[in-house]
Amino acid sequence: MLTTSVLVPLLFLSIAMGAAAAILAWRERPEPGATPLVWLLFGQSWWSMCLVFKLRASTLASKLFWTDLEWVGVVIVPVAWLLFALEYTGRDEYITRRRIALLAVVPVLTVVLAVTSQYHDLLFVRPQTLESTDIVRIEEGGLWYWVIAGYTYLLGAAGILLLLGLLRSKAVTFRSQAVALFVGLLIPWSTNALHIAGALPTSGIDPTPIAFSVSGVVYVGALTQFRLLGTSPAPRKRARQFVFDRMREGAIVVDANDNVVDMNDSCVGILDVDPRTTLGASAQAVIPEYDRLPDDGPLDGHLTVGTEAGSHPYDVMVTRIDNIRGNEIGRVITFHDVSRHLRQQQRLQVLNRTLRHNIRTETNIIHGYVDRFASDEDAQIVKKRALRIEELGRKGRKAIELFENGRAGANPRPLDALVAQCVRDVRERYPRATFSYDSSADDAAVAHFLAPVFSNLLENAAEHASDDPNVDVTARVEDETAVVVVADDGPGIGEYELQVLDAGSENALQHGSGLGLWIAKWGTEIAGGEIHFTENEPSGSVVTVRVPCLAEPADEDGE
Amino acid sequence: MSNESGSLSLRAENVQSSYRALFEVALSLFERAKDAFFYSSAYLVLVAIAEVVTVTYALSVELNAAPVVVGLVTFAVYMGDRIADVDTDELSNPDQCAFVRRHYRVLSVLSAASYGLAIALSMLGGPLALAITLLPGAFWILYASDWLPSVGAQFSRLKDVLVVNSAVVAAAWAVAVVFLPLAFADAAFTSTAAVVFAYFFVDTFVNTEIPNVGDRAADEAIGVSTLPVVFGVARTRQILHALNLALVPLLGFALLAGLVSTPVTVGILVGVAAVSVVVSFLGRTDNGRLLSVASEAKSLLVVGVVLLASTAGL
């Protein structure tokens, strides 16, 4: 049986911790949740204070006075808890003066009924008796007592539901905060529940305020150790909504019955619809060719959406939304405008055709005419330059093919075979050069479009080197990364050329001498790798290409 | 022989350097303790406790938890104030701000825990003691209130009004120091209590205006009316002298009327004399902070003299 000599020190502890935590929370204003937390701690401290004065009162009248005042703290706690949970989880849009007033109706009525309790039995079923333990026993259980008890537990459960998401948070800080909050709430409330059930030997005293001493310790710990109000999850919900609303891609959310339930601002523009009439409507009526869309994943080809402003092609991606049990509850459909991309692709095709056909034709004509008109040294120079123009055209085509192949996908090929093939091809074109190739990458596979990368590096080494250049090529695998090294004994790649490559673009003032090294750099980057240029000893360059190894090629002979 | 004397002198040098190192460590520890003592406002806790003990003796009530409660509240309020003003005090008091920033977390928790403990302890004195303990906190909330903007703004403006600003601080301090021991002892407010209240009110008022002399330019710039801002330093000195010395006839009357005992009268007169000396230096020294601390710390002198005089059987 609890006596006042045990109860009062515990209540003192509860008040001290509650007040200290309230001051710490007060200092954190205007952080989300700080103000409701101050009210919560004020409520529980008030409750404890009134209980102390009730226990220490010497007359029945004063004991009843403090019992009535206790209710102020009792009713503040659940309202403050719910407001805290709303604000802390970023749902502050629900906290309006009107809603707070509505939430306060039952608490205010309770306090009024407590103050006027001598005129009715709604809150307490009297009479009270002053017992030898100095504790006043009040036979609680009037009609309104159960109303406020139910109301308190309802708001408490609502607050817990709001905070449940934090328990699953990836951030340890938020999980720790959530655990602290639950402990701080559940201990006093379970104590209260046990008291209501008559399971605690407390001589009729509600021991909930004593359990607040634990809450106080937990809240102080959470404020100081887990930065309860210093690191707040409040912006997360708003940020996610913000990202959804403001993302450039159009996004529309449909439920499991294919009804539109949400859409962002971009999507409103893309589909040219009024969101007020669209939300709740059937997706078939809103999205063109809705039946073509897959259940999950990207749409094959493009979806053309026509509006008054014109029609645009879109890449469409459908993403399933599952509930916690893995059942589909809806889908998010995103629209990525590819009209600009398609225009660029068309331009590249035109450029490709021009480079492939027109330049070659024109240089052939130059060749023919020069042969007819002259055979001196000047004619040889013109022919050499014409060949160079044709070579530039060929490299341009290679670059365009590289981009197209990169877009088409990695298509893994054995590294060893790919490099060996490149060495063979370049060796044929540069018979004076001596190539050595050493590979220890038997099983490794890399993206097929890396072939022009290796070819261009080999050509660069053979072309710019001395009369009898030596080019050493090695291929190996290091930690799931394919490493290809091309070393030559030529004059080396100029510092200026490397600076241009490093800058990533050319302009009228700063430009390289050709496309070969660009192709090597672009191709490596498209494959997700990196390329490094160093000097060779005593002369020449060492180019190292590092690209991620891919899964085994599906077709070994598919070069 | 020469080897022996050489070894002895080497040993002496070693011992000397060890002592020097020890002394330097002790000096450094002392400096740090001194910083903590002043910057954390811990010295004000001693001042507050000394004042409540003086009141307890003067009012002949039993020694109770009031000095501890007032000490805890003093620490909490002053420390809280320094934490809240750490940005605005950066220019006027950089060393103190650096100390607060360095120990922000510990000081913040300590000040909150102090107030929490003070509230819990004050409940031993009943609802009135609790209300008096909550009073500084209530002022604090009103000062920074955004819950009650109109009340908070009006209250905040009080600190800009001549005399009212210092009078509010003096009244709040005197109420806490005089009424809390009474509330704990469940004693009535007597004529003796009124005299003691008047002393602490005037004393705190003077103590509040003393640092205003040093802050004159800054107060004037932000539109705060203090005695030095309105009347100048020389006239402020005269006003504070007058207020301080007005306590002498009050105490003489109280002694003759049997309201206060001889030890209390002697102690307070010593305090009045000490404040007079401090006020005389106002505007005549660059070390304004020392004057403020001396004026506040004279309460330790007062309680010492009261207890000594009492022991001596005066």
How would the blueprint of this fold be written?
The complex is a heterodimer of chains A (559) and B (314).
Chain A: H1 4-27, H2 34-56, H3 60-88, H4 97-115, E1 129-130, E2 136-137, H5 143-167, H6 172-196, H7 208-224, H8 234-246, E3 250-255, E4 260-263, H9 265-271, H10 275-278, H11 283-286, E5 297-298, E6 303-307, E7 310-322, E8 328-337, H12 339-373, H13 377-408, E9 412-414, H14 415-429, E10 434-439, E11 445-447, H15 451-463, E12 470-478, E13 481-488, H16 495-503, H17 516-526, E14 530-535, E15 541-548
Parallel strand pairs in A: 10-12
Antiparallel strand pairs in A: 1-2, 3-4, 3-8, 5-7, 6-7, 7-8, 9-11, 12-13, 13-15, 14-15
Chain B: H1 2-39, H2 42-58, H3 66-84, H4 94-102, H5 104-122, H6 126-143, H7 149-158, H8 164-185, H9 191-214, H10 216-221, H11 227-245, H12 247-256, H13 262-280, H14 288-311
Characteristics of this structure?
A: 559 residues, alpha+beta, Rhopdopsin 7-helix transmembrane proteins, six-stranded antiparallel sheet, five-stranded mixed sheet, B: 314 residues, mainly alpha, 2 domains, 14 helices, 0% strand, globular
What would your notes on this structure say?
- The complex is a heterodimer of chains A (559) and B (314).
- Chain A has 559 residues and is of the alpha+beta class.
- Chain A has helices spanning 4-27, 34-56, 60-88, 97-115, 143-167, 172-196, 208-224, 234-246, 265-271, 275-278, 283-286, 339-373, 377-408, 415-429, 451-463, 495-503, 516-526; strands at 129-130, 136-137, 250-255, 260-263, 297-298, 303-307, 310-322, 328-337, 412-414, 434-439, 445-447, 470-478, 481-488, 530-535, 541-548.
- Chain A has four domains: 4-234, Rhopdopsin 7-helix transmembrane proteins, CATH 1.20.1070.10; 247-337, PAS domain (Beta-Lactamase, 2-Layer Sandwich); 342-408; 409-559, 2-Layer Sandwich (Heat Shock Protein 90), CATH 3.30.565.
- Chain A has 17 helices and 15 strands.
- In chain A, strands 3, 4, 5, 6, 7 and 8 form a six-stranded antiparallel beta sheet that branches.
- In chain A, helix 4 (97-115) runs antiparallel to helix 5 (143-167).
- The model of chain A has no long low-confidence stretch (mean pLDDT 82).
- The longest helix of chain B has 38 residues, at 2-39.
- Chain B is 81% helix and 0% strand.
- At the A-B interface, helix 1 and helix 2 of A face helix 3, helix 5 and helix 6 of B.
- Chain A: One of its GO terms (molecular function) is ATP binding.
- Chain A: Its EC number is 2.7.13.3.
- Chain A: InterPro entries: 2C_sensor_his_kinase, HATPase_C_sf, HATPase_dom, His_kinase_dom, HisKA_7TM, PAS-like_dom_sf, Sig_transdc_His_kin-like_C.
- Chain A: Residues 354-551 form the Histidine kinase domain.
